[in-house]
Every structure is written in structure tokens, then in C-alpha cells.
Amino acid sequence: MNDVAIFAIKFVAIGFAVAMFAMNLAVVLTWVDRRQGSMIQDRVGPNRAVAWIPTPIAMGLALGPALLLAAGVLGYVHTHDVQGPELEQRGLLFSQLAVLLLWLTGAVIATQVKARGPKSAFDLWIQSLGEPRYFFFGGLVAHVLLFFASLALRGSAAGQTFVTVTSTAGPALFAFAALAGAGYAVYSIRNEKRIGLRLAGLLHPAADGLKTLFKEDFVPPNADKFLFNLAPFISFFPALVVLACVPFADTLCFATVDGKIQLSQLASSVPRVGVCTEGALKIQAVDLNVGLLYFFAIGGTGIVGAALAGWASDNKYSLLGGLRAAGQMVSYEVTMGLTLIGMIMVYGTLQVDKMILWQQENTWGIFAQPLAFVLFFAAAVAESKRIPFDIPEGESEIVAGYFTEYAGMKFAMFFFAEYIAVVTASALMAAVFLGGWSLPFVFRDGIHVTVGGSELFSAALPHGGVVALGALGFILKTIVLCWLQLTIRWTLPRFRYDQLMRLGWRKLLPASLANILVTGFVVMAIRTGGSAAEKAMGSLANICNIVLALGGLGLVVWFAVFMCTPRKRKQFLTTTSAQYAAEVGGTRTLRMGA
Questions:
Q1: How far apart, in whole angstroms, are the C-alpha atoms of residue 270 and residue 129?
Q2: Residue 370 CA to chain centroid, in angstroms?
Q3: Is 449 helix (H, G, I), strand (E, B) or coil?
Q4: Spatial strand order in the sheet of 446-451
Q5: For residues 417-433, average pLDDT
Q6: Could you tell me which residues come within 8 angstroms of residue 430 by beta carbon, excluding any fewer than 6 positions away?
Q7: Which of 55, 96, 189, 430 has the largest count of CB atoms under 10 Å?
Q8: What is the pTM of this model?
Q9: How many Å from the N-terminal Cα to the C-terminal Cα in the chain?
Q10: pLDDT tens across 184-213, in order?
Q11: Dist. CA 239–CA 414, nearest whole Å
């Protein structure tokens, strides 16, 4: 297979994976947005959509995938005989996956038992173990103990025994956990007439998307039909393809035998500095040396889509919305671009992957440019045209703005493009400001805790584990930033249009220019300061990494304690009718689906 074919396959595979990540996360964001809105506004949440399926089919859907997964894992282990570091990596990986599946299955079963009550001796035993959150806490402790046990025993006779046990018991335990969870689900629903499939409320956005396919495609009689039909595509696809320049994980290095790449086998370890020259696969759709320029060049075309939609609709409200959208997006695009100039001055490159490598060797960009992060975040929220910056589609002023005349899938493309824009902006912020896939003191060859030139702790990690850990970290950072943008929707009122433009041109723009000026002075001072300035910056970077590491551990402990603390529900009676109802024993109502 020649290099052109390999590049084409890699581009299609990674591009498809990136697009699916953005679109699926956008679907989840629509569910979270509605769920959060239902909690704040005290209305029914997105848990009404349900697909009723016969019980035998539901039992097959529960047991079939588990059987295939168990058979696939056991068959893979049986047919792939590995030794040395590869055996250790496989044993640790399947052991961690087995622990994850065990506590996750236990937590789900405990939640069901708590909701409907115990129906068997096994349910009584699960109930005796305590709250469902205890399974999470126990699983977290098991993950940590398993990881540190592998580090402590490595290279000893006990370590060889540990590797033998994990490589044998890990896949078997994983297969057992999958089959046990599916078996319990089949046993629990055996007497039901039908099963309602809700997928934790995620079926509701899917039902909305399916419903739009069958809605009438309306085109105003006097509209420009070509531009009217083209505008949704111009708004949707740029928001999706800008993720092509963002790397989701570090470079994967595959093993080579006699100069041939073995795609079924990862390299056991890689050096801390540099990357493999043969068998390298970047987890990035397009590796461009002008990565950030590509982001703004493609992302800026969304302005054209909004403006075209407003003009081509032959509707005055749509025209006003299109003009507002164009003015708003151009204004905040300027701030976003100028904000990142400071980051380019610090990193010395336009390539996003090299920016992440700089942060891995030094510190996260949010410490190097804290003001730039705040400015970019505000501009990114305004760029997505979401509350409190939803001036182009303010229903209280101009009905629905530039997509007033759109229906069906064309309206869905405008609607969905906003959520995808939230994902892409969050992914770029995670890469440029929050270290991307890098974690404090985690490098390509393992963990190295270095403070002031002295190494306090060092542990080698398998290459595949480091890449997977980095990818998980990047996804979690992106999700947190997405959630933060959704939270702002429910905390700030909508700006007036003059306030919106004043914020962009008279507040954010001067602040971004001042940030460039200060950054230039600081960069020049560091470069001309010699070894003393370099040493001081290295010490500050170590302090920032220590703060990040301790903060991350603190958040994990806090989350574990939060999950293990029973919820205390307090009832506030604010009316005399509610007080009267409480005194007579309450009112009888059906349990809501929200």
C-alpha cells in the first residue's frame, strides 16, 4: 500500500471519527441544555420520548452485544500470544477495563434496586452494600490500587506473577462482568410485556432529529431559492470541519518489523523527547503548519451563511437577523483572532500540536495568558450566537432572526450548527489554553515529577496507556468547557444590540490589544534576561504544574466524597395551599418523567 493510499485512509478514518465526536457531543449538549432548563424553569425535561419494544427483542438486545464482546475479548487474547512489555500492557488494560465494567454495572443495578425495591436475594445483597455511589468510590479506589501495584511490582519476581495474573484474569473478569450485567438485565425483564427504551433521555434529541426529516420544506415564494437552500450548508459544515486541525491525542507509534509497520501492535515505549519516525499516526485529521489560520479561515465562512439566510428569505425580520449576525460575528472574530496572537507569540508556532507540546514541557497556556483565555472564552460564546448573545435570533424582537422562514432539516442545520460551534470552540480552547491532551508531569514515556531540577518521582508507562490517558483528558476538558458555556445561558440576561457591540469593540478589543502589547514586553524581557530569567520561568512553570496536579487530585477526592454523600432533600412550602396539602398527607400525583 503506497503512501497516498495510507494518507487517504487515515484522513477519512480520523476525519469521520472527529466529525462523529462533534456531532454526538452536540446531541448530548442539546439534552443537557434542555435538562438544565427544565430544572431551572421547573418544567418537564427531555425524558418523554420512548420506544416500546417487545420483551424477547429487548432481551436479545441486552444479551447479544455482551456475548459478542465477551467472545471477541477471549478470542483476541487466545489468538494473540505476546510476551514482555506487550503482555504487561494488555494485562493492565483489561484489568482496568474489568474494574470499570464491574463497578459501573454494580452502580446501575444498585440504582435500579433502590428505585423499584429488591425482588430477589441478589437484590437484597446489592441493597446491603449501600448507596449506588459507593460502587463508584470502591471502583475508583480499585483503579488507583491496581495502577500503583503495577508500578511498585515492576521488574521483580512478584511483578512477573502480577503480570501473569492480570493478563489471564483481566480478560476473563471483563468477559464475566459483561455477561453478568447482561444476564441480570435479561432476568429482570423476563416477566415484562414490553420494555420502554429511553436511553436516559437521549432518545428525545434523536426523536427530534428524526421528526425534522418528515417536516415540510417550506421556501418563501419570493425568496432566492438557490441562496435560500445554500445558506444552511454554509452555516453547518464550517462549524464541523474546523476540528480537522485539532489533535485529540498524542502521536501513536506502531511497531515495525523488517521495515514494515505492524498496525496491530503498538510500540511498547517511546522516548520522552521526539517522536517515532516510522509507524507514526497523528490523531489529527489534517496536520497543517497554519493550523490556527485554517480554523479562522474556515470558521469565518459561517458569517456568510447567516447573512445569506437573512437576505435570501425575503423577510424583513430575517434580514434584520442576518445583519445582526454578520455584524456580531465579524466583531467578535476580530477579538478572537487578536487574543490568540499573544498565544502565538508565546508558543512561536501556528501548529496546534506543537502548542500542546510546548505546554507539556512548560505549563498550560491559561497560566501564560490568563487574560487571553477570558477574552477568548467571552468572544467564543458570542460567536456561537447563544444566550446572552442571541441577538440575531431574539424571538422577543425579530421572531427567530435569520432562520425565521426555515423549517425541517434546514432549520435543524442552523440549530445544530450552534451546538457544534460550542464543541469546536471548546476543543480549541482545551488545546490552546488547557494543555490539550497533556497532563501535569505526564510525558510520552511515563510520569516524571520534577521540581527545581530534582526528580521526586518517576514511573514508566506503556505508550498506548499514555496516549489513551491523554485522549481521555482532552475529551474531559472539552466537555467541561462545553458545560460551562451552557451554564452561562441560564445565568445572564440577553444583551441589547448596542450593549453587545459596545462590549465587543470598546471592551474586549482594547483589552486584546493591550494583552498583545504586554505579552510582547514580557516575551522580550524573558528572551533577553539570560539564564536567570529562564530559571525563574522554569520555577514558575513547576509551581503551576504542582498547582494543577494538586487541584486535579483535590477535584477527584471532592467528587468521590460528593458521590458518596447521601443527598439531603429539603422541602420549602411557600403557599398556604402547599402547607395545607402537606398537613393532610400530601397530594397523590404520578411520577413525572423529567
A1: 43
A2: 22
A3: strand
A4: 442-443, 446-451, 454-460
A5: 86
A6: 436, 474, 477, 478, 481
A7: 430
A8: 0.79
A9: 53
A10: 888 888 877 888 777 766 677 777 777 777
A11: 10
Q: What does the DSSP assignment read for 471-492? A: HHHHHHHHHHHHHHHHHHHTTS
What are residue 541's phi and psi, to 5 degrees? Answer: -65, -40
173 within 8 A of 95, measured Cβ to Cβ:
yes
Rounded Cα gap, residues 313 and 308, in angstroms? 8
pLDDT digit string, tens, across residues 124-157: 888 888 777 788 888 888 888 888 888 777 777 7
Range scoring the smallest mean pLDDT among 41-50, 221-230, 494-503: 41-50
Among residues 409, 431, 441, which one has the least CA distance to residue 549? 441
- 3-state class (DSSP) for residue 336: helix
Over the stretch 426-450, which tens digit does the pLDDT of each residue have?
Answer: 888 898 888 888 888 777 777 777 7
Angle at CA of residue 367, ends 362 and 368, nearest 5°: 70
How many Å apart are CA 466 and CA 438, to the nearest integer?
Answer: 10
Q: Which residue has the cell 459507593?
A: 134
Query: In whole angstroms, what is the distance from residue 281 CA to residue 260 CA?
Result: 14
DSSP conformation class of 242: G
Question: Is there a contact between 446 and 459 (Cβ–Cβ < 8 Å)?
Answer: yes
User: Residue 142, Cβ neighbours under 10 Å: how many?
Assistant: 17
